[in-house]
């Protein structure tokens, strides 16, 4: 009897220990993986960047093990400064900025690795409603353009010249207003025409402050307008992170491609709490309809050359740079194959 009690006790003790080990392993398995932090600096807050907000709101970055924080740094110069100084890991900004940095002899150049938008994102807004708009109507008027040297300004001038308008001779061109204050300046009475991003353009239209009469995106063709980029050293030291980041972006691009404007607007709504949902839906539909959202993250050579042609036409290209010098398509191609 005593012998049996000892055996039973030993068996009970072993069972308890095994149960404890199993429970411990289960608890360990339940512990969430530590997410890798990535800081994005975006050049402006715009529905134009809908796939980025979808990647955040739908958890595509988190699914890849990334803890992404987003900061808006208005203007390409501020965004690039944040990236170069180490205040951000990744920048979402126009590809022209990487050329400017390279031309200044940077030891650690900025590399474009995932394209987000593939057309210009601005619209021509008129103070007066005009159902029979023609570009000739701009001649002799005051035009509020974008910051000199930035993609909006360069594409704007490219399109104006395409329609036989010399922006520096045929217009009273104003370019000395800070990027973040252009819309306010127009709302306050400056200018007869202005170049604006969405949703500001549609909000102005709803409020009767201006009317959208043309799209610079439709007029200019495909161009790497906004791209995710990082310093060459960061990409080299964080290949896994960049691949995961690009995969999340690609998932978001595919999601946007396969969903309605209403569903996309709903997904990005948290990033535009003060914007009318109907306006958001209209804006998404407008951008999607003109093919502004890139459907994959590859920035190809034809788009890169188109960018440099636009810069050259505007007199802002410091030097021609080969596609493979500042563009890395290997990451995007690898992600798309998987």
From TrEMBL:
UniProt KW Kinase keyword: no
Q: Where is the signal peptide?
A: 1-25
Instruction: Output the Gene Ontology cellular-component terms.
Output: periplasmic space
Q: Which InterPro entries match?
A: SsuA/THI5
Q: What organism does the UniProt record list as the source?
A: Neobacillus rhizophilus
Name the record gives this protein: ABC transporter substrate-binding protein
Q: Give UniProt keywords alphabetically.
A: Signal
The entry sums up its family as follows:
Belongs to the bacterial solute-binding protein SsuA/TauA family.
Coarsely, its chief localization is: periplasm
The cross-references to Pfam families, in alphabetical order and at most eight, read: NMT1
Q: Which Gene3D superfamilies match?
A: Periplasmic binding protein-like II
Q: Does the keyword Signal apply?
A: yes
Source taxon at top rank: Bacteria
Matches recorded under PROSITE patterns:
PROKAR_LIPOPROTEIN (PS51257)
Q: Give the location in the cell.
A: Periplasm
SsuA/THI5-like domain location: 50-260
